[in-house]
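agent> Task received from the user: take the single chain below, predict its 3D structure, and emit structure tokens. No templates, no multimer pairing.
agent> Plan: (1) validate residues, (2) run structure prediction, (3) serialize to tokens, (4) report one or two observations.
agent> Step 1 OK, no nonstandard residues flagged.
tool_call: predict_structure(input=
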Amino acid sequence: MSRPAFSLTDAQARALSLRTGELQALFPLDPRSHRPFVRAFLRAVQEITGNLYSPAIYHRLLSAYAQDRRPSTSTLAAEKQALANEISSMPTTASILDEGNDAPRPLDDSGALRAVVAEVIESTLLRITRGTGQGDLAQVNFYASRLREAEVQVRDLRVSCARLTAELEVAHQAIQAQTEEAEGSARVLGQHLVTVAKLTNEVSDIRTFALQSIDEARSEARQWKERCAAIEAQRQKDLLLLETFRQQAYRHGASIPPSLSKDKLP
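)
tool_result: status=success, residues=266
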């Protein structure tokens, strides 16, 4: 009989997609180590589906929801085994009650309930303190590995924080220098604006004077033109009168003065 094909329900797919986005923001891409993201991703798959799967299935899920995360098969297998050990080492409610009580007894009041809880806690702490079980040892190793990784991440974060602080200080200094330069440029620009305003007023005055001069020249030219026209009209009248006098002189036989001679007329 063949194994059934792996698939997620729509609700599981949506939940895994949302959780993967949160994990990618929480664990930025580090090509040197995918373990923190892989560990959290496997835990998310287990919490959503309630099952553990083979590395091949995890590869398929990563290809579908986190294509830039490409851990090796050995990394997936190791993280799966660590998660399985952690799950198996967690005491269930039934096992805690079995360890704390050889036989169930009725709880009549809150005092009896507190006594049972105290016994369960005491027995659990005693079991963890002894640490003789294989599951407890695996859990301790798992959390020790988590602690070392957390210390490395904290150290890296401190280095990054120091670097970012230095860069922020440099950025503040650069901003301050640029602000001072911008203020100087603004002062110079204000001075230039004042100068431009003065030049604008001067040019406006010059233009007004030029227009007035042009109007006066046009008026004077018009007056001279009118005078020339009047003089020319008077000249034509004088010529007509002179011609009349000359004709009268010819008719009456009077001698014509040399100034009125036809040859000397203009």
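agent> Step 4: summary for the user.
Residues 102-109, 131-136 have pLDDT under 50 and may be disordered.
agent> Done.
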